[in-house]
Each structure stands twice: as structure tokens, then as C-alpha cells.
Design the sequence.
């Protein structure tokens, strides 16, 4: 195992990798509850979606671990599942079978793009300072998500306020703050596995507070996939609506995944001498295969999860971390009642503090060169404000090209970067 994953070479060991994998799982386990809830809006059987969610996560994450040998986990992505249910099905009026067909086509196209190195070229076209900014932006993004999910931050609609402080003296918000303080203390004392221990302690504290529900059972057989597996509808493939749905899915998934891979790899100092993510082509294959298989099983687009940063923060550096996460998803198939009791307030502390860890690369950004710092700033700030990693990258790349081209430094921009910039601009008109 040491030779296969090169544990010593990556300054890690089996215990660290397994613990990191479990931590990653605990911070992303909410998808097992949230994804069935969202896709049920599209008329899909929630029990079947639960099984499809877990199995697609296992398949994609195993490929990531054994093939790419990177510590990243995959599962049906947030945002992508909402577009599937609320836009394609509810707004456009198509069936979930139509939406699954779009996801299948997306996965096949991604396999082809990865095979011909198109996606790898896009990753390599991202300037170094924007790669650093992606890590920082993701940090703010996931910290914002954690605080929002726990109710520490709320989104009032009655007074025009964008965000406001929630009721932090009771309920989930109070539990999240308690968890942040406890987890922060564990980190300050250099306790190994601080994030995972913090999740467990916070979940336990939630029991007497009435936030964590005691499990009614521990074991449960996985629900059948039969209501949703291989339910495709190919009679609308060559329609404008299919093109719009497919293009949007491709764009969202491509740059969310690229952003996550680059951001987390940058934080973990895994980039090579040329600033590239190691085994990026293999990592992108894992994403493409996961999406294709996920569609066959009956779930929305599978993508690399930003919560992988929590495992990296615990020291995960190799594919063994990913395998450990995949193993937890297998266990979750049969222990769903137990994992379902972990409330968002218990995972919020891990997300918030990982957000802090992700800020480190900002020290390497040249803030005095405005052709570098302004695009980096746009990348950072637009991720949490637009609730989208991909939109943050769009603003960063386009502003980078504009500033370089209009200040006599156009030669600093590579041809692939110009091409990506043009595609970004076209995206807003389609």
C-alpha cells in the first residue's frame, strides 16, 4: 500500500489517510439526505435516489483514489442537482428521464474532452495567481455555506437585506458556534483528527438541545434503484432545450470541478514545478465516469466535492484518502439512519475552519500588481457572492485578459487563456 500510494513520499501514513477520508465523508455526508430531497421535486423516488447517490459517489471516488491517486471525493453536486430538478424539470417542463439523458450526454462528452486533453488544457490555461485565488475563494465559499446551513447567517427577504446574523442564542446557530469553538480549541492544541472529533462532539451536544435526533434504527437495507435506473428519454436529443440544458450542465460541472481540483491542490501544495495539478487528466476522468455512471444509476451530475478540502486539512495527500471516503459511502448504504442524524450545525464548524485553512495561498498573490491582484480579487469575492465556483473563475479570467491586453502586457496571456475567456463571454449570451 505504501508503494502503490507513495505514502512516505507524500509525508503521510495509513492512519492519517483513513482519518482524512472519514473527515471528508462526514463533511459531505449531507448529500445523502439533500440530494434525494431535491430530486424528489422532479418526481423521482427519494429512496432510490439515496441509493444512486451513494453508489455513484463510491464509483467515482474509487476511480479517483485508485486511478488518479488523489485525495478528492466525488458525489452528485449541489447546484447541479438544483438545475436538474428546478430548471430542466419544473421550469422547462420536461420529465426527469429527459434530465437524466442530458446528464448521460454530458458525461460522455466529458469523457471525450478528457481523452483529447481539452479539459486538461483548460486547467493549465488558468494563471498562477488565479489558481491561488481559487483556493482562497473556495475557502470563503464553503465557510459561507457552513454558516448559512447552520443558521448563523440568514437571508432575510422581507427587508431587502442580502444577509444578516441569525439567532445565535439558540437552536442550530448556537450549536454551530459551540462546535466552532470546540473544534478551534482542538486545532489550537494540535489534536489529530480535530475536525472529525469536532463533528462527533457537536452532534452529541445537539442531542439534549433537541437538534440532533436519536436514531430510530441503525441498520437499513438500501432502497431499490428500479424506479430510476437507466430511465432515459432520447426523443428530444436534437432540440434547442436539450442544447441549453446540456451546455449549462457542461459549463457548471467543468469549472466547478476544475476550481475544486485546483483550489484544494494549491492549498495542499500538491502542484508541480509548473503549477499543474498532478494526474489532472486522470482526476477529470473520474469526474466524467462518475457523471456517466450516475446518470445510469439515476442521479444528477457527479462532481468533485469542495468538502474534500476538509480531508486535505487533516493531512490527506493520496488516493487512500479517497478510498476511505468511498468506504464510508458503502457503509452509509446500510447505516443510513445513523448518518442521517448528523445535523448541518455539526458539519458547519469543519466547513468554516477549512475555509480558514484555504486562505493560506493569498500570501503568495502579488497585491501590488493590479493586473494580477484585481482578477484574483474578483475570483475570490465572486465565489461566495454568486454562490458559484465557476462564476468566480469567469470573472477572474475575463478581467485578467482585459487588464493584461489593455496595459500592453497581452503577451503574458497564453492562447488557451484567450480561448477560455471567449468561451466565458459567450456563456452569458447563450
Sequence:
Amino acid at each position: 500500500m505504501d508503494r502503490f500510494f507513495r505514502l512516505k513520499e507524500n509525508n503521510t501514513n495509513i492512519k492519517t489517510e483513513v482519518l482524512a477520508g472519514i473527515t471528508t465523508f462526514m463533511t459531505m455526508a449531507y448529500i445523502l439526505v439533500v440530494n434525494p430531497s431535491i430530486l424528489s421535486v422532479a418526481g423521482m423516488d427519494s429512496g432510490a435516489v439515496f441509493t444512486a447517490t451513494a453508489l455513484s459517489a463510491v464509483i467515482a471516488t474509487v476511480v479517483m483514489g485508485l486511478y488518479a491517486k488523489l485525495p478528492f471525493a466525488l458525489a452528485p453536486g449541489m447546484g447541479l442537482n438544483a438545475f436538474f430538478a428546478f430548471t430542466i424539470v419544473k421550469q422547462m417542463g420536461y420529465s426527469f428521464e429527459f434530465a437524466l439523458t442530458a446528464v448521460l450526454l454530458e458525461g460522455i462528452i466529458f469523457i471525450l474532452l478528457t481523452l483529447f486533453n481539452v479539459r486538461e488544457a483548460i486547467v493549465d490555461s488558468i494563471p498562477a495567481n488565479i489558481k491561488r485565488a481559487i483556493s482562497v475563494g473556495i475557502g470563503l465559499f464553503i465557510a459561507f455555506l457552513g454558516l448559512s446551513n447552520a443558521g448563523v447567517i440568514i437571508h432575510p427577504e422581507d427587508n431587502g437585506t442580502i444577509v444578516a446574523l441569525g439567532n445565535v442564542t439558540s437552536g442550530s446557530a448556537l450549536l454551530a458556534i459551540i462546535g466552532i469553538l470546540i473544534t478551534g480549541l482542538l486545532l489550537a492544541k494540535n489534536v489529530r483528527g480535530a475536525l472529525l472529533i469536532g463533528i462527533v462532539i457537536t452532534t452529541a451536544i445537539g442531542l439534549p438541545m433537541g437538534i440532533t435526533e436519536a436514531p430510530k434504527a441503525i441498520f437499513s437495507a438500501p432502497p431499490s434503484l428500479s424506479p430510476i435506473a437507466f430511465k432515459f428519454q432520447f426523443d428530444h436529443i436534437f432540440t434547442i432545450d436539450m442544447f441549453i440544458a446540456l451546455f449549462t450542465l457542461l459549463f457548471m460541472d467543468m469549472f466547478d470541478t476544475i476550481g475544486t481540483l485546483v483550489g484544494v491542490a494549491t492549498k495542499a501544495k500538491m502542484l508541480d514545478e509548473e503549477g499543474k495539478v498532478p494526474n489532472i487528466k486522470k482526476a477529470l476522468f473520474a469526474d466524467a465516469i462518475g457523471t456517466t455512471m450516475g446518470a445510469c444509476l439515476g442521479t444528477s451530475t457527479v462532481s468533485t466535492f469542495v468538502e474534500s478540502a476538509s480531508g486535505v486539512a487533516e493531512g490527506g495527500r493520496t488516493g487512500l484518502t479517497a478510498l476511505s471516503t468511498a468506504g464510508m459511502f458503502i457503509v452509509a448504504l446500510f447505516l443510513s439512519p445513523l448518518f442521517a442524524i448528523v445535523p448541518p450545525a455539526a458539519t458547519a464548524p469543519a466547513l468554516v475552519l477549512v475555509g480558514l485553512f484555504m486562505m493560506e495561498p493569498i500570501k503568495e498573490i502579488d497585491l501590488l500588481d493590479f493586473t494580477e491582484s484585481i482578477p484574483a480579487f474578483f475570483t475570490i469575492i465572486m465565489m461566495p457572492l454568486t454562490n458559484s465556483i465557476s462564476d468566480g473563475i469567469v470573472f477572474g479570467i475575463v478581467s485578467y485578459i482585459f487588464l493584461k491586453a489593455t496595459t500592453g502586457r497581452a503577451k503574458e496571456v497564453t492562447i488557451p487563456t484567450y480561448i477560455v475567456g471567449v468561451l466565458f463571454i459567450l456563456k452569458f449570451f447563450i
Summary: Residues 7-128+149-351 form one domain. The chain has a mean pLDDT of 89. The chain has one domain: 7-128+149-351.
